[in-house]
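Risk register update: the risk that structure generation would not scale has been downgraded. Supporting records follow, first protein first.
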Amino acid sequence: PSRVARCLLASMPPRTVIPVHHDSGYWVARTHRIHCAINTNDNVVFRVGRTASSMQRFKLDAGRVVELNNQAKHYVANLDPTLFRTHLILDYADNAFPELLPPIIPVAQLCIGDRLVQTRRTVALVTERGTGPLAPHFLIIGAQKAGTTSLYEYLAQHPLIIKGKRRETHFLDWRWPSHQDFDKDKMLQQSSTQLRKRWHTTFYDVENHATHPTLMAGDSTPSYLLASHLAIPRLKAMDFHGPMIVMLRNPVARALSHYAMIVDTNCTPAQRKTRGTEWLNASPAEIANAELQFLVRKGLLKPIKTQQTVPKLSDTYDLDPSKLQSVLADLPNSHGSHSLLLRGLYALQLRPWLQAFGSERFLVLKCEDMARNPRGVVDRAQRHIGLREHPLDSIEPHNTRPNKPPYDPAFIAALQAFYAPFDRDLAQLLHWQQVSSSSTTSMW
């Protein structure tokens, strides 16, 4: 019994035919199937074979137990005019798929008369309809260009996760309903609940989540990490208690990938609108230097021991976190052509989130680790959001850009020097291996 992953009592009405088919569901490749005839009759026709043309008829007497490969072609007909045909079907797992075995799988006590609804991934009581928490159930909040799309797609391979209507809902930043913005101090409990429902009904499969309350869905909007001044108070206003994941990447590689995405001409009008046009006629060095001057002018970055009148990436800087809110207030909220440098200051962005929700709510992962070991990283993410590990069917990365513009090596070296002290701060914050030199290579 400890190896049984699924058990069904299947009843076939009189004068019913199930045409030639083969099963392809989640359980088929991962379990062995046992049939035990409970009620049958001489008018039941059961045929099975490797192909439709090679099928042979087999007789399953009441009480006979057989193992059937449901990936083979099979055909069933109950031609009796009055009698039902009933089979007990057991799917049992072997040691190759320990994630299917109890005691991880929950057990529910059923009563006579209970009605169930079943998909290939869930079984739920009809009376449980609508009792599950509203989607999203977990968040991937950033960072932009750090593997969030791949992680989202990997997690969506889990049988208990279904995708929403959009991967990036942006509900906590530029899609937030302005007439109910909590910043106006009008957020009562009722309106908070309404906002949570709006997030759920606008971006998720309402019917599926109502019928199958154990299914989960996520919001993967990487701009949330930077937009903490918007996202954090709005999550608190909605009393969101779900787990959150942060993907980080070598900030130099992240910045170059960010620039490549913005200037890529192979995009739809909608993508161009959200990406913005401000960088289309500028080099990454020009963009970075202009932003550096802005951050120094705002007081977020303070040069250390320099006589330069114009800030340079090769200079050393202190951070003044108290100025972050002022910087964020000046950033655009409708496109992504901004913060090439700022998005790579990870410790600065993470601290407000950790202070607001506590570190136990967060799982911080490296894009580089996922590239080297996608299954291991996804296992950690699945556990963090409350699911048992499920093997990945595909580890193909998503949202990659093969043709990237060439970059000046001197600019890359300047970026590495700029980010080195901030990476050391991040390593200390997250208890990661410290970087001992000006290079960030050993950390990422």
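Supporting record for the second protein:
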Amino acid sequence: FCIAGGTHSYQGIREALLERGWREHREEESMIFDLKWTVKTTDIAFKALNKDQVVNHFAKNSCITTKVGLTRNLRNLKWFEDVDMDLF
């Protein structure tokens, strides 16, 4: 597995994986991994992933998984439904 963001990032996830026998490598740019965990979606080359590689992000979903994207979509909801975005 690979955790992008430095050796102090996601310490709980790192410890849980190591306890389960996973092996870590720290080359964040490497495409050799079974699991890659990262804060930023841009750290993942989605088109280069093999079908057996797992990452903690989904491609092309920022419209609902980022604060900006979710806020924009909630504001646009008024065009489709009679709701007050501020009540969410």
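The first helix runs from residue 11 to 19. On this basis the risk owner (M.S.) recommends closing the item.
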